[in-house]
Every structure is written in C-alpha cells, then in structure tokens.
Amino acid sequence: MGKRFIEDVLTTNFIVWNIGSEKNYISPYKEENNMSYMTAQEPSTCAKIIHSHAALAAAGNLLPIPGTGFAADTVTMTTMAMALAAVFGANIERRVAEAMAISALKKTMLKQPIKTIAKELSKLIPGLGQIVAPAVSAAMLEAAGWSLAEDMAAQRHYQQFTKAA
What we know:
2 domains
C-alpha cells in the first residue's frame, strides 16, 4: 500500500481494510452503505426515546402561534439528543446537545421544506393548525431522531474501529 493511497483514504470518510489482495471500503454512515451499527437492543431503546419525545414535541406544537413550534422542537430534540447519547455510552453537555438538535432539525427541515412551511402556516387557520402542526412536528422529530441515533451509532463504531487499528 503506497503513501498516496493512505493519504487518499485519510482524507475521505471511508474505512479501508485489506483481505488478501482485495481492498474493501466501508463508510461509517448508514446513508452511503445501508448498514446500521446498532446492537440488537439499541433500536428498541432508541424507539422508546424517539417516540416519547416526538409526542412531547407534538404537544408543544398545539399552540396556534407561528414560531413557537420551532422552540418546542428544539427543546425536545435537545433532551432527546442527551438521552440517545446515553444509549450509545456517551455523556454530552447540554450545549453540545443543543447544537446537535439544531443541526438535526435543520437537516430534516431542509429535506422536507414543504412540511416545515405547511406546519407554520397552518397555525394561522384556527382549528386546522392544532391538527396539522403537531402531526408534522412529530413526523419531523421522528425522522431527525432516527438520523441522530444512526449518526451516534456510526460515530461509536468508527471510534471503536480506529482504536482497534
């Protein structure tokens, strides 16, 4: 294995190992290789955390005032990030959890901009806003929560893999 090959590997997000003369590449991120790095028990634990926090976010979005939903989502996502970190053996500070929450919510909102706009605009219509906003918020927090859980599992796997090497 030449120096140039090693430099190329170190500048990417891929983990490389050799089996015989064959080089194998695997990315630590689920989106790229459709693998999950969670143990058998972690998905059910994560599901309980994510579902309960999504329900809390839905309750926080019952207020018919545009903009309050993002605050409720951010607070809920922050506590969800701290709880998920504990599942994967990490202990994160509240500031770090807030940054992770905002990043995950922003990522989810950018993937689903129509839902985000519809959620906030529906609050202007009495009655409809109290049905649409909580449902959309719960769906968005579910997506953001699972994305965050997969990222945390991949990060843990990557750290364990690099320690072993």
